[in-house]
Design goal:
The complex is a heterodimer. Chain A is mostly beta strands. Chain A is built from no helices and 11 strands. In chain A, the strands form 2 sheets. In chain A, strands 2, 4, 5, 6, 9, 10 and 11 form a 7-stranded mixed β-sheet that branches. In chain A, a hairpin with a 2-residue loop joins strand 7 and strand 8. Chain A is globular, with a radius of gyration of 13 Å. By secondary structure, chain B is mainly β. Chain B contains no helices and 11 strands. The radius of gyration of chain B is 14 Å and the shape is globular. The termini of chain B are far apart. The chains are: A mainly beta, B mainly beta. Chains A and B meet through strand 5, strand 9 and strand 10 of A and strand 5 and strand 10 of B.
Chain lengths: 111, 120
């Protein structure tokens, strides 16, 4: 059973920068895992932010960027806004018997 | 405009059945892979089933043999038939569009979700 791990919680100040990471129990995350990132606010459906490592969806603000960092997928928020407070989930593609696996989510607090 | 609208959720007793529908507009379900992702109360996201463009399907081990995903291209709708429901199937079920782009795979549009509660 493949496990995808994210930081449970992070805190950042308005205007600051924060990086969320996404690790795989199978080893280093590469572009072939097509990392996707999603934002979810309370009571709402998740909203897609990033696909295939570093490609923004059409509606994603430029302050959100994706990358690979130290064997993990990463989501960096620069110039954080109060409305960025939310849960963030990563998703990795493994193919085969367990194609899509979500991380457990990171609760981002902006204070 | 791409829209996904789920329906069919509700309260059901353990062992019962429900069928979720996901009506799509703004694109063709036959041209994209479609997924059902669920979220138990206070928990994270879990991909339970996928219908690929070629007709292949995927089921998570937790629902294999009990859930069936299907699509009706004439109605541009995807379904999730859920049988032998258990308390642990209680969750909000989201319908999600998947796209195989030139840059890679993307799960881009999500429905608003359908709440399924399994309880006696």
């Amino acid at each position: 059973q493949t496990v995808v791990t994210q930081e449970p919680s992070l805190t950042v100040s308005p205007g600051g920068t924060v990086t969320l990471t996404c690790a795989s129990s199978t080893g280093a995350v590469t572009g072939s895992y097509y990392p996707n990132w999603f934002q979810q606010k309370p009571g709402q459906a998740p909203r897609a932010l990033i696909y295939s490592t570093n490609n923004r969806q059409a509606w994603t603000p430029a302050r959100f960027s994706g990358s690979l960092l130290g064997g993990k997928a990463a989501l960096t928020l620069s110039g954080v806004q109060p409305e960025d407070e939310a849960d963030y989930y990563c998703l990795l593609y493994f193919g085969g018997a367990q194609p899509w696996v979500f991380g457990g989510g990171t609760k981002l607090t902006v204070i | 405009e791409v829209l996904l609208v789920e329906s069919g959720g509700g309260l059901v007793q353990p062992g019962g059945s429900l069928r979720l529908s996901c009506a799509a507009s703004g694109f063709s379900v036959s041209s994209n892979f479609m997924s059902w992702v669920r979220q138990a109360p206070g928990k994270g996201l879990d991909c339970v089933s996928v219908f690929y463009t070629g007709g292949a399907t995927y089921y998570a081990d937790s629902v294999k043999g009990r859930f069936t995903i299907s699509r009706d291209t004439s109605k541009n709708t995807v379904y999730l038939q859920m049988n032998s429901l258990r308390a642990e199937d209680t969750a909000v079920y989201f319908c999600v569009r998947g796209v195989d782009t030139a840059l890679g795979l993307s799960l881009d549009y999500w429905g608003q979700g359908a709440l399924v509660t399994v309880s006696s």
